[in-house]
Each structure stands twice: as C-alpha cells, then as structure tokens.
Amino acid sequence: MVDERIGLVQGDDLPFIRLQFSDGQTGAALNLSDPEVIVSVRFRAHRQAEVLFSTICEKVDGGHQGVVRFNFAPDLLDVPAGLYEAEVEIDFEGQKQTIYDP
What we know:
The protein is mostly beta strands. It has strands spanning 17-20, 37-45, 53-56, 58-59, 67-70, 84-92, 95-99. The strands form two sheets. A four-stranded antiparallel sheet has the order 3-2-6-7, with no helix packed on it.
C-alpha cells in the first residue's frame, strides 16, 4: 500500500483536499453527478473507532469525472498532534460504498 499521508496544521482550514474516484475494474472515472449521490469523509484517531468529526464533500465540476473536495471547518483541526484516519463513504441513493483501509 502506498503511504497516502496528508500533513495538516492544527487549527488550519486550508487548502481544500481533492479526492478522485475511479472504477477498480476499468479505471474509468466514477460519475458522481447525480444529485442524490453524496460523498462524505469521517475522521478518527489512528486505529480508534470513535468518529471525531465528519464532513460532506463538494463535487468538482458537477462530479462527472469522479472528483470531490473538502476542507476543514474552523476548529475541526483543534485536536492533539498525532496520526488520524479518514474513512470515505459514497452514498449512491442509499447504496453505500465505504473506502477504508486502516
């Protein structure tokens, strides 16, 4: 597995973090443009079950190319220094796909 760590600064709210999703079989970009499709990210301390906070992603260019982005609302990064994990969930009109690899 590739180390996909993102360095963050406590209390920061910039820059936006972009995520791009593709089909694991074909490599084609996932079309997230349906208004009912929602992408969210949940954050927790490394190897912990408790969700500290979550955020809803914004679709970039309508989501046609599988790209979304999010940033951290004020105070969300007011947490102790350390490792944290992000769990991404794509809700396709009630059918949820979770992307998480601890």
